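Field guide to reading this record: the first block holds the primary sequence, the second block holds the structure written as discrete tokens, and the final block holds curator observations. Each block starts with its own label. This record concerns NAD(FAD)-dependent dehydrogenase, catalogued under organism Clostridium pasteurianum BC1.

BLOCK 1 — SEQUENCE
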Amino acid sequence: MKIVIIGAVAGGTSAAAKARRNDEDAEIKIYDMDYDISYSGCGLPYYIGEEIQDRDELTPRNAAFFKKKYNVDVFRRHEVLKINTENKVLTIKNLDTDDVFDESYDKLVIATGAKPIVPNIEGAEKSNVFYLRNVRQADKIKEYILSHKPKSAVIVGTGFIGLEMTENLKKLGIEVTLVERLNQVTPGLDSDMAAYVEKYLKSKDINLILGDSVAALKGETLVNEVALESGKVLNTDFVIMSIGVKTNTELARNAGIDLGAKGSIRVNTKMMTNIEDIYACGDCTESFSVINKKPLYRPLGSTANKMGRIAGDQLTGGNLEFRGILGTGIFKVFDMAVAQTGLTEKEAQSEGFDTVVCHNIKPDKPAYYHGKEMVIKAVADKNTGKLLGVQIVGYTGVDKRIDVFVTAITFGAKAEDLFHLDLAYAPPFSTTKDPVMYTGMILDNAINRGRELITPKELNGLRKAGNDVTVIDTRVSRQYEEAHVENAINIPHAQVRNKIDELDKEKVVVTYCNKGVTGNAVQNILINNGFKKVYNISGGHKNYKAQTK
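BLOCK 2 — STRUCTURE
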């Protein structure tokens, strides 16, 4: 059997390796357009920022490695021009010699990946406008910084790459301005969680321009001005465009292969396309959601590796099948970690779920053992109690918690199940009730025990709609006097029972404290004394303050 793979990064090389493990006799060839293969794209910002000193650490496996270890022939700088599906023949061009030749196959894997979006604006192709997708592009950025000694940079886009580059350029002493067309940073997060990232970036002296987009990149030979749609003009020494990627699927489309979400290649759970003996994997390929089974496109290296392994197994007679993804992602910007999995609140509501949301602000371990607060936003379905998605911002222990939530959602856990997890505890690692367990307790109280939560946005919405709401600040007077929710009255927790008769049990009451615990305690007292409708502010005053600009 002759297996040909188009693309030699995560998906393609994983497919080749698994196919070889299953079949020692197959002839396996990989063709790729690039100079580098099997590289770590996620490490590129840290190579530019000199966190990673040795370029070879990003490209540890070359063509010789694959030939020696897997007996796989890898051909770099070769572009597949056409797929003849009827005769099972590829037309291939050697980009170094311009020679064109044909290659037959028995089984074909398309792993052509994705490419950066290049906006159709003036100056987008100038030599100091960079797009970071592969090692050669990282080399160009690094060379430019070394030769031109730039003082300032504009980064367009605040996704993973944009914020990772922000950190690494800042560490090199370059002043960074971030431009984002949305009114928030980190487009993948709900706006209430993005607010924490925005505040942190400002504390690091990053210039933020939100709700604006680039109209033109101006300059004679090099870009030195970025003109925005608002009319604002930014001076800069270079630009990094980080506005996303699009699927590299023209070859597949021209061959008659079905495309799906955002132009990605549609496959079944065996990574098979609609054409017999042709498979696809990696960033060019459609995924589907574990939660609702709907198609989605989330290009991530972890998913590409998984898809490649499944494709390599299937085309050599194996039985591995793709089970979907949650779109889990995590990145670091300076000392802050940002993670998410599953559906955001906005996505869950658009899918028709009756959502319950909580904001849990807890340290990753006890304060006496250097614990640092993280903010966990969890979204659950009120009707079934199932956990739908989680977003976390924090400094330590974020990766551990998000992975626990990923596991729980993958296996269909309800919010109430989180409390019963037997998680590891010792002061250097966690609190006695881990933040994951506490999140489950908060959601369980809201879904099953009548202790409803209200977000700052929902509270402001109630008030704007003219509802008569009593808001009670349950903190001590000193905290109330420093800052409080507008028109809130101060009744500290210790005094609530003595003042119950002064309150109207028929009115809607909203309680809050600093982070939520004492607010919930007062909520319990009021409900147990016959108050009809009592909410507790999700995440307390800390979360309310974060949402109020």
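BLOCK 3 — OBSERVATIONS
The chain has 16 helices and 30 strands.
Residues 135-148 form the longest helix (14 residues).
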